[in-house]
Amino acid sequence: MREGMRERGREQVRAAVEGELRLLDPAVRASARLVRELLDPEFTEFGASGRCWDRDSVTAALALESSGEAGPGGGSGGGSGDEAGPGGPAGPITATELVGTLFAPDIVHLTYVSERNGRRVRRSSLWRHRAGAGWRLYFHQGTPTDPAEPGPARPAAAPATAAGAAAGPPTADGTRGTADGATP
């Protein structure tokens, strides 16, 4: 029984990590339909710019970003288009220091650092699962950080990108792990 609960916890963390990494994928970000599938209808984000975003505003910002137009510059690696910068080209987004925690059944908290075009942002995401809808991003916050600022004392995790790294397993208890399976 207990092992089954651990495995379910690992699966839930893995599903949230996969969703977060999909939101960093340029092909997903370019598709309003795919973005909306990953964002909860009640989605809220406090972007790295300080702006508050909802599902519709993130979808619109990402459409501008993918069209090559300068977007409003606002939100997350996991949400809006904050990272491109004013009028700058959008480069690939990498995620490091990725840690997932099972808060409760069907609620996963992810933290990581994103980098794009030399800009580092600490990120926090809450994912929730609902029957019939699957895993969706419910809340996201991005906080800019100094590129020289060291992160918390954790074993180094391999950088994760939407195009490459698959999330490794959480720890043995099924509740915490990094993108490469190391524990914090």
Unreliable spans are: 70-76, 83-88, 154-159, 161-184
Shape: globular
Radius of gyration: 15 Å
Number of strands: 8
Helix content: 25-40%
User: Helical stretch count?
Assistant: 4
> Pairing-aware structural class of the strands and helices?
alpha+beta
| Strand content range | 25-35%
- Overall CATH architecture: Roll
Largest sheet: 8 strands, mixed
Keywords for this entry:
8-stranded mixed β-sheet; alpha+beta; 184 residues; Nuclear Transport Factor 2, Chain: A; 26% helix
Verbal overview:
The protein is α+β, with helices and mostly antiparallel strands. It has a single domain, classed as Nuclear Transport Factor 2, Chain: A. It is 26% helix and 33% strand. The protein is built from four helices and eight strands, in the order H-H-H-E-E-H-E-E-E-E-E-E. Strands 1, 2, 3, 4, 5, 6, 7 and 8 form an eight-stranded mixed sheet that branches. It is globular.
Furnish the topology, listing elements before pairings.
Elements: H1 2-24, H2 26-29, H3 32-38, E1 39-46, E2 52-54, H4 55-67, E3 94-104, E4 107-116, E5 119-130, E6 134-145, E7 160-161, E8 176-178
Parallel strand pairs: 1-6
Antiparallel strand pairs: 1-2, 3-4, 3-7, 3-8, 4-5, 5-6
Question: How would you briefly describe this protein structure?
Answer:
With 184 residues, this protein is α+β, with helices and mostly antiparallel strands. It has helices at 2-24, 26-29, 32-38, 55-67; strands at 39-46, 52-54, 94-104, 107-116, 119-130, 134-145, 160-161, 176-178.
